[in-house]
Queue: 2 jobs
Job 1
Amino acid sequence: MKIVSRNEELLREALSCMPQPSSRASLASCNKLIRFEDISAAAFKIQCGVQKTPCMYSRLSKQYGMDIYLKKEFLQYTGSVKERGVLYLLMSLPQEQQRKGVIVASDSNFSMAVAYHASELRIPVFVIVCTSTAPARVRTCREYGAMVISYGTTNKDSQVHARRLAQENGYLYLEEEDSAVYLSGLGTVGLEVYEQVPKLDAVIFPAGGHCGLLAGSAAALKHLNPHISVIGVESESFPVLQQSLKAGHPTDDQACNNHHFYGDVSGVCFGSNSLQLTGKLVDKVVAVREEDILISMLRLLEYERATIDAEGAIGLAALVAGKLPELKGKRVAVVICSGNLELHLLQQCIARALTLDNRVCRFSLVISDCPGDMSKLLEILAREEARVLDIKQERTFVTSELFTVQVICTVETRDKIHTAQLRNALLERYPTTAWTER
């Protein structure tokens, strides 16, 4: 199966379509479709600069009734698959532009990949971030070797400042777009998955607004085997790709607003190249709930010992949510593309996921304020093998009869069945037990 026909535009002249040193534009002008040869060339060129990450059989396979292989792109040096496209992009720049340098304006995975690989290639690199950027991200970009400048209170402020600096100093302003060079670099994931897992039935990718990984990898996979199903997954809160495919052009969904938890999957659809390839080659795009993404993050932490962000976990979330029943009994690869979960979100995500998974629950009940009544409650919890995480007593504002105490208890259980057993045991002894719903 050919990706493009002869009369379609190819990437024969990648360097000629790159901005010249005097150019003030971004890479959007390089607007061409890609073919399999372009992806192969990218794989050869970047092989010494990025990891060939493992694609390993997962213990989650038995739980979901299929052979699941996880492509662990979060093991890249910057924790993101974006390194592949960024490195090929930087290596394709003219030497004069490499000498002058590049500039980016965000704290995204794309910017961190630019900061690292530009420094490794000895290209001067500047990262402009707004003042609200997490200190850890600023520190990381500086450790990679970039000159980081905080400017403005919004991303738009930092972008305007970066463009002005690029114009005044001859830097090339880079933003994540769907140039053929960038898509070819991302498409190398598809090549590796095909090599690492024989007899594949399907490959699942994160989608959303920045669907370059999905589009580029689909080009590689469909060329190698047209029968492999390529599936994209995005959030129900930001169904940007589905809206764009339905409209036939990239849509600007104002609801996206770069939601911090979702990262790049909540961004606007950034180009017609990715959209055209997705519409032509991708078999299915599904949407999942935030709850499913959180549980997917929990599963990856428990079963793979991997701390994954929402963008990286969203592919597995489609299996967690049962959105792809046709894959039961099949051999499926899931691309875990990113592991840059900020620490202040980690605790919140785990706590919420445990609650959604019916493994942390809270109840309240009223008991007599007499010696021994509290110990009887604790005996029931011990007998039911529930682990007490927190317990509080309220005496002053209890509205029931005098000399009683309201007990609010948070406990940890094994699973949904164990939670139901505990609930029945408590209701049998304390009929007025109130269970806090999720």
Job 2
Amino acid sequence: LWRLGYSARLRKTNLYRTAASDTSSPAVWMLLARRSGRVPGLFAVVQRKGFFTMPETVQPSSNPELYSPHPDVRGMTVLNREAFKRTVAVPVLKVRKEIVHTLLKSLKHTVLQRPGLKRVVEDPEDEDSKLVILDPHKVPEFSLGESEREVLKQLHINPEVSKYNLELTYENFKSEEILRAVLPEGQDVTSGFSRVGHIAHVNLRDHQLPYRHLIGQVIVDKNPGITCVVNKTNIIDSTYRNFQMEVLAGESNLVTKVKENNFTYELDFAKVYWNPRLSTEHGRVVGLLKPGDVLCDVFAGIGPFAIPAAKKKCVVFANDLNPESYHWLLHNCKLNKVDNKIKAFNMDGRDFLLGPVREQLRKELTLVKEQKTAFHIVMNLPALAIEFLDVFRHLLAGEPCSTAVLPTVHCYGFSKHEDPARDIQERAEASLGASLQGQCSTYLVRNVAPNKEMLCITFQIPADVLYEQPCPAGEEPASKRLRTSRDFTEEHLRS
């Protein structure tokens, strides 16, 4: 109806004519309300990256107390739920019990729609009537508009609006409203959290740290299923890709279960790396594989690439240096019933590439296959993976040269460069010692932080890198045949 009102004036006129003859339709009354200057349900909304995924309504200045806890909670560091109580005067209509449902349907855009608050309460003065609470933002100064009065006239309801003292408690306020009331004015009150099973993982800013335990408890209270909140206390810079964390609220059990792309994983969040924001990327890469393909996962973690690939009937080699990750990888292979389809290793990434991966490549050279299969290598260690690419230099030196066995590499990296794709490509080329111009693609995985991107560069290892000689015989080596990205830029500038 909203779009029709703007796209066709003739249709709009016909709808208003219909409104004059059919006053029982809620949709029609929405149009009438718009005509009178009251636009039911139409609010400015703001998408915030914070504790919530739902839009937050921008509230008018009238009766802000309905969405604000008691001002005395400002500066609270230890949660006191009783302190959030307050009484707010709201507009109500006195309605006979038998027509309450009809009124709610006819004035559904004027009646209070606040989650957790009752729209209909008992009338303390008349047991045959009910009090219907109206939205104070739609009924400013406790006065109904012309369209609402017409609805009440049709239903034979007294249009007089009364005041009702509504008791609000901690349970009636949303997380962000509570935090906005508690933290110092003018400071950010939200911090995005990742959900890992029953655990909420937050990255609090310095000004939020004095309130960290209160923030944690609010998250537990307002998010069903979350029983533990942790805050990262340092960046991931350890050998095993985990980080120190502090339990802010709830139980201290960090062994949890998650589901991703129809697979179940169990893990100890304090000892292994897991990022729920990579679900789409795991699915994207596995979607590139076909049954019979070979996947070598150099930094496998607990198996989000390896396990779905094994279910897809790929030949899978999975490795991780962290003994805890290796333990949970084996556990999750059994949990998802692919333990007999994955060869798991607990090795340094370089040793894995120089050992099991090279050996499997040699075997692929000697196999005569009726159906062509692909060889994929996943390197998901964004902080360091590109530095491992030099391992591919002459990895198969001395072996019979074959273009049929040129592995496809999916290598992840971080970039703060103004041109992240170019930056990742040039760093990969420097590590390989060869150009990838025209032979690679880059995919933006996610924004990690302001001016910091996570990307995946995908390419086939050039034959002269892998074998140390041109392949097949007679062709010019790729390193001489292809221009570097810098050559291309200089040529473009000259032209």
